[in-house]
């Protein structure tokens, strides 16, 4: 199955979530996330609010109703421009479509920092603080292949992706998994154009449990013998597991994911997820607020990690079934580092 970007219809559904207590009125910032329900973005918001309170930055937080709610993010940027904010932190739902709005903010004198999800093109943002999502995908792909061993050559693989617009975080994790597993990618910037016969298909989840369940059901209709599932995040992975359990296949399929939230790490410990790549949203957001404060004070923009086009906030593979040649930490350590 191949998904292309689709325009989102309907009026903007702007959701102003909170305002951190202000210690100073001259530095303000906005945090715009995809949703306010995914634990990843909940923790991101907590990190931003704590750092804003520490630095005396006025922070306003916005989110869409669901992952993929592009119109809400456009409306949020407009509100931030009207408020005269010094900078915006954004985890974009539609990384291409949001660029025009980002340019408007920059033209208004704001610094715009992408969190977790690079814009398309990436340099449309002034900086990006993110997990190396390609590496996160490679880790779970390599682990899955090593775990299957010789049977990796006969795998039947399903992909539970994010949204039809193919945001960069979705593409990077998807293509990274294929690289790690040993699948030749065609266009590394596109989802679903590979020809490897092991690929059963792709479906979308909107990054939540219900979406994961429905997508898994759809892929099982295509091939009930699927034995490997790549999921965009842990809520989608849990939904996939529910669908598999409903038909008695929960022990027949290897599920891998990305996020590393506390519920996700618990799912690894319980055997629901085989392995997950852990990322660190609190750090992303806290560093982002620091960068906006520095920009407001000195006009200095944040610099990327040496050798990369973004500031890398780290990633680690979490599993209790380590595979030879694939670096990992266990769920005990993962629980110490988890969020949500």
Report on this model:
- It is a single chain.
- With 340 residues, the protein is α/β, with parallel strands linked by helices.
- Helices cover 39% and strands 18% of the residues.
- It has 10 helices and 13 strands.
- The chain has helices at residues 39-55, 70-83, 99-107, 133-148, 168-181, 209-222, 234-246, 262-270, 281-298, 331-337; strands spanning 15-19, 28-33, 58-63, 87-90, 111-115, 127-130, 157-161, 199-204, 228-231, 254-259, 275-278, 311-312, 316-318.
- The strands form 2 sheets. A 7-stranded mixed beta sheet has the order 1-3-2-4-5-6-12, sandwiched between helices. Strands 8-7-9-10-11-13 form a 6-stranded mixed beta sheet, with helices on both faces.
- Helix 1 runs parallel beside helix 9 (281-298), helix 2 (70-83) runs parallel beside helix 3 and helix 8 (262-270) packs antiparallel against helix 10.
- Residues 1-25 have low confidence and may be disordered.
């Amino acid at each position: 199955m191949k998904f292309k970007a689709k325009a989102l219809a309907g009026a903007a559904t702007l959701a102003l979530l909170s305002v951190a207590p202000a210690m100073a009125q001259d530095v303000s910032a906005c945090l715009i996330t995809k949703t306010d329900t995914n634990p990843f973005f909940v923790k991101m918001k907590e990190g931003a609010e704590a750092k804003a309170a520490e630095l005396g930055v006025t922070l306003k937080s916005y989110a869409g109703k669901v992952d993929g709610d592009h119109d809400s993010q456009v409306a949020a940027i407009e509100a931030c421009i009207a408020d005269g904010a010094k900078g915006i932190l954004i985890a974009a739902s539609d990384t291409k479509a949001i660029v025009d709005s980002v340019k408007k903010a920059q033209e208004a004198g704001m610094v715009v920092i992408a969190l977790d999800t690079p814009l398309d093109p990436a340099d449309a943002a002034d900086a990006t603080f993110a997990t190396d999502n390609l590496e996160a995908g490679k880790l779970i792909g390599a682990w899955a292949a090593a775990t299957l061993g010789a049977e990796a050559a006969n795998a039947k693989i399903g992909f539970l992706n994010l949204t039809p617009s193919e945001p960069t975080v979705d593409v990077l994790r998807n293509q990274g998994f294929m690289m790690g597993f040993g699948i030749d990618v065609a266009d590394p910037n596109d989802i679903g154009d590979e020809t490897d016969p092991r690929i059963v298909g792709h479906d979308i989840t909107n990054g939540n449990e219900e979406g994961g369940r429905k997508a898994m059901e759809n892929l099982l209709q295509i091939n009930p013998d699927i034995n490997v599932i790549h999921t965009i995040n842990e809520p989608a992975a849990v939904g996939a597991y529910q669908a598999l359990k409903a038909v008695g296949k929960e022990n027949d399929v290897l599920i891998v994911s990305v996020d590393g939230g506390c519920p996700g790490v618990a799912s690894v410990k319980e055997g629901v997820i085989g392995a997950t790549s852990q990322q660190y949203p609190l750090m992303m957001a806290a560093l982002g607020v620091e960068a906006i404060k520095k920009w407001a004070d000195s006009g200095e923009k944040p610099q990327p990690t040496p050798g990369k086009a973004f500031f890398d906030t780290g990633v680690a593979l979490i599993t209790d079934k380590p595979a030879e040649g694939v670096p990992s930490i266990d769920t005990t350590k993962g629980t110490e580092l988890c969020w949500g």
